[in-house]
Fold this protein.
Amino acid sequence: MPAENSPIKALEQRLSDIVSIKLKDDRIFRGRLTRCDQYMNLTLGDAVELENDETKAKYGSILIRGNNILWIQIPE
Amino acid sequence: MPAENSPIKALEQRLSDIVSIKLKDDRIFRGRLTRCDQYMNLTLGDAVELENDETKAKYGSILIRGNNILWIQIPE
Amino acid sequence: MPAENSPIKALEQRLSDIVSIKLKDDRIFRGRLTRCDQYMNLTLGDAVELENDETKAKYGSILIRGNNILWIQIPE
Amino acid sequence: MPAENSPIKALEQRLSDIVSIKLKDDRIFRGRLTRCDQYMNLTLGDAVELENDETKAKYGSILIRGNNILWIQIPE
Amino acid sequence: MPAENSPIKALEQRLSDIVSIKLKDDRIFRGRLTRCDQYMNLTLGDAVELENDETKAKYGSILIRGNNILWIQIPE
Amino acid sequence: MPAENSPIKALEQRLSDIVSIKLKDDRIFRGRLTRCDQYMNLTLGDAVELENDETKAKYGSILIRGNNILWIQIPE
Amino acid sequence: MPAENSPIKALEQRLSDIVSIKLKDDRIFRGRLTRCDQYMNLTLGDAVELENDETKAKYGSILIRGNNILWIQIPE
């Protein structure tokens, strides 16, 4: 399948954009995407945890293990 | 087994179609299929979350990790 | 082990037959088997969800991710 | 390790024997072992589901996905 | 790492010894180890299920899928 | 994808820094990162378990299995 | 990444030391580390199960399947 159809490649093209990440335990993190790999392991800068769209906690720089991720909302 | 019998290939052929996706946690997402890979990682455009067939939330562009997917309803 | 003893090959030989599929979450789907692969990813045509042997919902064409499958009942 | 010590090879040698299979969800299936592969995916003929050693349901021919299996009782 | 340090090799050296096996669902099986492979799939002869150190059920020959195993107690 | 974008490489560059690690069971460990590998298996020195930001237990040197990790907070 | 940074190599270097092992089901085992492999499968000699730092049960020689392990406390 051509690379331009790869969801992971699409994620790489959003490096430095702000993304929201839903984990399997229902937590939502938001931050600047600074790195990602083929397993969806990724790092966020200026990461915050959200609850009802409000900041619940600030984490600075955080590495999220890909296999915990449910979905990633990417800015249009 | 011949490629035309591959369920993943069948999904690729529906790029740009509207699909409904059921996750293991029972959530349903609907949107335009814009990318997919062999693990069923995929991206949706104009994605919405449905509850009782009504729109519960709008996500714009979203990447769903394939291993969370239970089934994908494909338009006839 | 000879290919004729492969359970996956046996499934492939039932393409276009009606099968019932039990998922790990106890749901049962029934439909015409239209595609399958080595991970038991498969597509059904005219798929319905059953509850107590009655049709609970109609899905048309559906792709089921293999790792959710508990068992597949194959017609004799 | 020599092949004669392989548990999977031992299973293959029981093709056409009656086996009992316990799934992770505690269900027990019994039937004639007709196929198996290295992942313990297997097919049973004349399969029945047991509850307290009594037949609860009849399935005919069934394919069980190996990763759901807890143990397989093999006739002596 | 040298083979003599391999836990799986240590298990192979106990073929024909009596072992106790704890599964993830807390059940304990005891029997004569007759086969094992690198995934800890194994067969027991004269297998019994124990509850509070008493025999709860007798299974004869049983194949246990390795990924269900928590630990295996090996005789000194 | 270039190595400088790898989240695992980013973790390796923090060896000897203090990191906080959230496990899937909600426990938080903090300590000096002394080793890590591609699966996020890692060792911490002077490891403590935290509860409500207070030290709940001291572990000295600890090896954490990577697949239990939810996220790792990295100092700015 | 250099081998001296491998958490698994660090574990191998503690063969014959006393280690404490926390499993995902919250049980703690302590014993002399006698073997380990790259999956963290390991054997303990003179193994005991601990509850509130007291010996709850003695197991002699035990093989623990690596994928059940949460963390391993290594003596300083």
